[in-house]
Amino acid sequence: MSSIHSTMTLASVTRPPTVDLVKSGLKRRYRAERRFRSYGMAAVIMSVLFLAFLFFSIVSKGYTAFQQTFIRLPIHFDPAEIDPTNPAAANYDGMIRQALLKRFPTVEGRNARRDLFALVSPGASFQLSAMARQDPSVIGRTVEVWLPANDDIDMLVKGQIDRDLPETERRLNNDQLEWVRSLQAENMIEKHFNRIFFTAGDSREPELAGIWGAAVGSFYTLLVTLVLSFPIGVAAAVYLQEFAPKNTWTDIIEVNINNLAAVPSIIFGLLGLAVFLNFFGLPRSTPLVGGLVLTLMTLPTIIIASRVALGAVPPSIREAALGVGASKTQVVLHHVLPLALPGVLTGAIIGMARALGETAPLLMIGMVAFIVDIPKGLTDPATALPVQIFLWADSPERGFVERTSAAIMVLLAFLIVMNATAIFLRRRFERRW
Asked: What is the second-level CATH architecture of the domain 212-429?
């Protein structure tokens, strides 16, 4: 008996107290928690760094597109060349060449003159034509006009072309560099705000290319998408959430709606190609067809978000309305739907933001065409802003590289505004139960 008592006493002496065991376990758990938090913080920091690097890369390449190089030349609007009844038919290219030769009278030879004429954009003649049409009083006068420079000259002035490289390794020869230096010394070359980028359509010349045509095409496409997807999506969500019986068929519908939200967008483009173009014969490359395709793509998102918003309304609201004699339709339209409207609008805006950034379905229905004119309606040929970015990214000219990044900046700005609007609406009108 005494031996057993001594053994228990020895065990109690050698075994650590319960408090020490708890403290050591707490220390391990605290260390594990700190490690987990540090891993999470490191992941957040890495995500922010990658995002900052992406934005820096885009902005560093695209901010220069918001300025354009112009050359000031005295243009003589020769009345012998311009018909007042039809000013657009005049030889404005010849007037620009005469102004350049007058400024550099020593330039001789066919190749040298071709290099001299290449300082000015090939589309500068359209600017002179527009001036003569808008103000016929310029005919017969010599007017100082700022004309857009060629894209190579624009890149040179912006520092994108190294002047110290050998002549064989750059796109501009030594004579052109000397002419540019001479014009800069006389303040005849300046960088101005690039209004062309925001007011013009697409062009094969980088210095004349703009996003306005693509922006208008995106507006018409999103207009069709919103007009169709919002009422249809909300009506479908209201029926499934409030009126549809719970049976096998509604379960199948709900499963398919959830699956459609995860279908790749190019599948909707193939569906639009097969149904709207090949079967119904609608015109290709139009905002109408693009809006129909994007409607199919955004409907699942709007339906799911609207159902979640409707389901978040407390049942007591429905019961109280039914208790005072309201019908089921009155309960939904007068009480449930208004209270769920902030969530419904948030889902619709998020769906529209997704539609704004989509490219693949629009490529499948032909909205990848080279469109110069600004669309005037839903059935006019048009392209969209993401597709315009895709087209410019495939162009080899250095001028299109900066315009691609600048167009991405504009698209990101639209997306940020739309998502910020969704967040504002949710926080402004959200009801917490």
From this structure: Orthogonal Bundle (1.10)
